[in-house]
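Reviewer 2 asked us to include a model.

Predict the structure of this chain.
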Amino acid sequence: MNMAGKTVLITGSTDGVGRYVALKLASAGARVLIHGRDTKRAQALADEIKRTSGREPMFYQADLASLAEVREFAQLVLDDQERLDVFVSNAGIGSQNEGPARQASPDGHELRFAVNYLAGFLLAHLLLPRLKASRPARIVNVASIGQHPIDFDDVMITKNYSGGRAYGQSKLSQIMFTIDLAEQLAGSGVTVNALHPATYMNTTMVRASGATPMSTVEQGGDAILRLVQGDDVADSSGRFFDGKRETRAHPQAYDDGARKKLRALSMKLAGLSG
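Predicted model (structure tokens):
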């Protein structure tokens, strides 16, 4: 895909791999919409984009833990943008970010499920009309190879909680949603794929978890960029990639019944009609 003149929204783009992707796409001619919570980091990124590409990005501030803020964010994008060619759902928190203890979102949902999965689920649904109108368009969900099956009797992990389990469940939920949404969007001109960009990239999230970085932000960013603009994946949808290689996710991702349960729960929690 030639990115010149394309409009791309990247959540969590003021730091880490999202920042790298934003800079690269701006340099390729895209109109980049950046998102984050920290205005200082956003301004630093905006200044660098303007300096290196001559383009002025638009910044949207929102806390994705709050579904009300997610809705406001989506509406602002719809009001501001006549087209949306790519949506990269990248924002997230790791297994130890915000602390190792179980935390709840402002809406009462387990925090990692809310930020890593439910916010992107709601954003994608709210932005779909603009994506469809801009087709061919792409959705890229930044997930992880670290996945944990969902216990539908305790999705919010009120028992036997661990940050690793919560993170893995949220990432598997993203992949299940990717497969579901691809089926719904078949023939629409909008594709959706998920990926594990790279293992333990040198990012704030990884360092906060206490893990030793094993790969670079550039490696992970280049894998994301391939799904954003690669001609070789233009017709791919509903796939999961480990870096640039297609692979299989956890078996629960391919369980039609489990995906149906997750879809019904997510629609209810996000306040969306069937």
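The longest strand covers residues 190-196. The beta strands are 7-10, 31-36, 58-61, 86-89, 137-142, 190-196, 240-242, 245-247. We have added this to the supplementary material.
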